[in-house]
Amino acid sequence: MGPGSPVRGTLSLPDFVMRGASRGPRTGTWEGPVPKHAMPRSRRLGQLKLTGTVVVVVAFVALFVTSAMGMIGSRDDGDPGDSRAAQVDASAQTTSASDDPADTTGTDAAPTAEPTEIVTDVPPQDVKGAKKLKRSLEWLRRGLADETTFRVGTFNVLGSSHTAKIGGNKRGYASGPTRMGMAMSLINQADLDVIGFQEFEDPQYARFRSLAGSRWDVYPGPTLDRGSIRDSIAWRTDVWELVEANSIAIPYFGGDMIRRPVIKLKNRESGREVWFFNTHNPATTPNHGNNAHWRGVAVGIEVNLANQLAEDGTPVVFTGDYNDRAEVFCPIVGGTAMEAANGGSYSSGCATPDHMDVDWIFGSGIEFSGFVSASQGIVGRVSDHPFVYAEGYIPEEPLGGETGDEPSGDASPSDDSSDDSGD
Prior knowledge:
The chain is an alpha+beta fold. The protein has eight helices and 16 strands. The protein has helices spanning 41-68, 80-99, 137-141, 176-189, 202-212, 292-309, 326-335, 378-382, and strands at residues 16-19, 25-28, 144-145, 148-156, 194-198, 216-219, 233-236, 240-251, 257-267, 273-280, 316-321, 339-340, 359-364, 367-374, 387-394, 397-398. The strands form four sheets. The chain has a six-stranded mixed sheet, with no helix packed on it. It has a six-stranded mixed sheet with strand order 8-9-10-11-13-12, covered by helices on one side. Strands 1-2 form a two-stranded antiparallel sheet. The longest helix has 28 residues, at 41-68. The relative contact order is 0.11.
């Protein structure tokens, strides 16, 4: 060989860096032939370890990839290739059938697994909020409001001023706030979600608010003229939401006009909207004289209001202390589409209910059941009036049309001299 020719087993390298015991870099040059076995043992071992590590990693990656692709094993004992072939055959038969609808001679592919056994002995499950699932898309397309069930009451809670130690005329009763706590217990026990109050004075309103918190809302409360707070309507906020809040002037003692609440509530579960009106018509008392005339005027306004609210088919509920029996039942049931929660009719003349108090619940577009008029026990410690309530049911019906005009009274709101503290 001539000079400069490579020699087998010889490394011909440029300058390289070596590190000695002093760990400082030194520069040197390989010169002459170097046998393979002259490589230090430690370097050969390092290269073998590196090569082995690479082989293991490559094998692991290959195993992982093939497993993910379904190449290793099968859920069946059969050949995976046969399963894939069956899928291809089934796909081909489907394509063929779609290409030639008239060809019905093909053979269906055999199932590749046993059908899953259907379990039929599962006990009924109590699913929270399951009633909401009832309203399917088909039901919504038909423009129907879901059936609605609610519990409504009316309660003259005997105004706090009547039982005050100074100036009160009802002896033997606890204070208004104390009795309001008892009334709240009755309301909860009856599971009411709407109630019309009468003689619901400021101390009782404050007590109710402190007990109810955000679970109940009230209208009008102290927001209207003096005296209107006494006939507020309260509703549970988890069952109803307020849509409209209005008022109408109704004559009280001596024709003094007091605004009474007229509100539209929407049931949160069914979406049904319902009008609620609450009133207290004037009584005939020694202090305030004979108010039969003004009760008749009040009933006339209330009949017109009921017809106006029901014009578009929206259900209507009236609650209140009307201070009359047949004198209020006959014109309201006979002059409107309303029925009394405690029965009676006006199909061929006025047929009054078997039992009547002066406290009433009327409704149109509603089926009443479970009527209660309780005056014993704790009720007698709260008030000199019964605690009256019933369950209302509104069937699934077409939704109403456009909302009519807001109710309004011909008279203006009363001034600060209004007095609504009678029986």
